[in-house]
Amino acid sequence: MVKSTTIVRASDALPLAATVDDDQTEQILQEHKQQAKLIFRRITPNSEPLCSIESGRILYSASYMIADNVVYLTIADKSYPRKLAFSYLDELSKEFQNSYGAKVETARKPYAFVGFDTFMSKTARLYQDTRTANAASSNLDKLNDDLHDVTRIMTKNMEELLWRGDSLDKMSHLSTSLRSESEKYRKAARHINVQAMLRQYAPLGAVVLLLTIFIWWRFL
């Protein structure tokens, strides 16, 4: 079943809304929520829009969806169907966009849209029982076309995702270095080409210049 949900702004990981969890859930999911914070900081424009994160050490998995510069992440039982998890996140994203989409970029303080917890809690209850959720998903047309194709949802290990940001930073640095070296190479190549042309045509130019001077001096 769905245990906890957090919504953050993708560009800077600012928390926008979250479910109000009881003390027992907070204690059980403490490690997972800390990992979720690291995941939010690792997300980049190159991250997969739909991703399921698992770890062999824990009983829960996390799934996130990125839409319109907002990350929707939920923690659920590891046995909870991924399709339902992403259907749940899809429901949240549609309602959140309709209610607060225009205000996301201007939000300055954490949990500026705390009132969204009411909708999240109500929707989470609908998705608690997988049988009820399946029926509701069918009756209310909760799944969009992308979510029908579960193979398009990426699955990653928690450890892999937590290191992903470091890898992307290295790739970004490598790309910048390659562009710089490429520019240096192009400049050097142009310089070499100019020198080669001068060596090739300089003698001919000198002869033409001497002939011109001779003709000018002889006939003028």
Short structural description:
The chain is α+β, with helices and mostly antiparallel strands and 220 residues long. 56% of the residues lie in helices and 17% in strands.
Q: How far apart, in Å, are the first and last alpha carbons?
A: 102 Å
The total of helices stands at 7
- Can you count the beta strands? 6
**Largest pleated sheet:** 6 strands, mixed
β content, as a range?
Answer: 15-25%
Helix proportion: 55-70%
| Shape call | rod-shaped
What are the secondary-structure elements, in order, as H or E?
EEHHEEEHHHHEH
Cα-based radius of gyration, to the nearest Å: 30 Å
What structural class is derived from the secondary structure elements?
alpha+beta
Overall residue-averaged pLDDT value: 76
List unreliable stretches of 5+ residues: 139-151, 165-175
Biggest sheet strand order reads 2-1-5-4-3-6
